[in-house]
């Protein structure tokens, strides 16, 4: 099949490369000339494990190429995927102007029957608007279908998530489009759920919001555990054996971040309000997540008493491990709050240092976890990189002014930390 993938962000680039990997001819299009030229030179604009090798291989085998022009790239396409950004506006709603622009361009340049697939995360009824837009600008009345096919890949494991998905959601109206989508995804051998386009759109927002709800729920449970000296890890394990609940996304921490959960939560809330539905739970999920970051900074206060004039080493800046993405990362708010309280912050992240340089102000960026710990009064862990879990803790202890660790991701066993002589604070577990 010939695929035109419009948008080379996380979703577009990974999806385009993976479709090429399973045998399709893919042209990835973007209107950002720098991005396209970077990709043509074989360099990746994002860090994603396994992506670079896959892109190189498929470019070499001539199944994957990059272009600035939608007109040229959809000429022979069977599918045009819309994977452009839907950034949040100040009122929380999704800015759909990029989607609309692309829909117009597709309508003007399509040459034969085309399946237009909405891949970006969008509010319910966007497919309907895309369809209307194409009908309006498609003067030659070329037949087409619009399909909603939301993506569930996670940054850091995106390639694997695409190739081994839990499910594939296809929201389509016509049998022709359903059958073509079935063939396209056939090689993945994953369960396919066929719905109407609106239901498919809601599945995406409802899934992300539900996962965010699980995290805020366990973070609230963690706060109860802290009050009574219980252990949230054990609570989550006990709950997780119930197949109806499941252990995943029950890891308590210093809050969720990233470009998906916070944004999609806002967008789902916005559309609910617009439709006259009070989705109170999601407002609480958002508030709990904001409070969790403040609660974490209070832990640093508990450990240091006075933050003013202290040096704090921060480990982990990306919003989660195995990515360089710092968009809506909890580290940004946590560092800001530490600085507001008068701390000098020195920080380290294995991958996101270049992004950190752009986003963080007044932070000394260090070359290793040990450098970030050197001379600090307290070490704060914000992202659960494996590298931190494997640190030489004796060495860390020697680097620190005081052996105090405030762990926002529960990376270490409190009993071990006590044995090693640390003052150790974590989430939902007794401090030692
Ligand atoms: C999320 C969804 O998991 C994907 O299915 C979805 O496709 C994607 O959004 C999207 O809409 O594009 P992602 O944002 O890459 O993926 O990251 P997650 O692994 O879901 O983690 C999000 C945040 O939750 C991170 O800050 C992470 O540290 C936090 N988290 C996750 C917890 O605090 N506790 C947990 O138990 C799990």
Produce the secondary structure layout.
Elements: E1 2-6, H1 10-21, E2 25-29, H2 33-40, H3 51-60, E3 64-67, H4 70-73, E4 79-82, H5 97-109, E5 114-118, H6 126-137, E6 144-148, H7 158-163, E7 168-171, H8 175-185, E8 192-195, H9 197-228, H10 232-240, H11 261-274, H12 280-304, E9 311-315, H13 330-340, E10 344-348, H14 353-359, E11 364-365, H15 369-373, E12 378-381, H16 386-389, H17 393-399, E13 404-407, H18 414-419, E14 423-425
Parallel strand pairs: 1-2, 1-4, 2-3, 4-5, 5-6, 7-8, 9-10, 9-12, 10-11, 12-13, 13-14
The structure holds uridine-5'-diphosphate-glucuronic acid.
Keywords:
six-stranded parallel sheet, binds uridine-5'-diphosphate-glucuronic acid, elongated, Rossmann fold, alpha/beta, 432 residues, single chain
What is the mean pLDDT?
Answer: 97
The CATH topology name of the largest domain reads: Rossmann fold
The radius of gyration over CA amounts to 23 Å
Distance between the termini: 59 Å
Sheet with the most strands, sense and barrel status? 6 strands, parallel
Number of helices, where a helix is a run of at least 4 consecutive DSSP H or I residues:
18
Look at the structure and give the CATH class of the largest domain.
Answer: Alpha Beta
Bound molecules: uridine-5'-diphosphate-glucuronic acid
Strand content: 5-15%
CATH superfamily of the largest domain: NAD(P)-binding Rossmann-like Domain
CATH architecture of the largest domain: 3-Layer(aba) Sandwich
Give the % helix. Answer: 40-55%
The number of domains is 2
What class, by secondary structure content?
alpha/beta
Residue windows where pLDDT falls under 50 for at least 5 positions: none
Q: Tell me, briefly, the overall form.
A: elongated
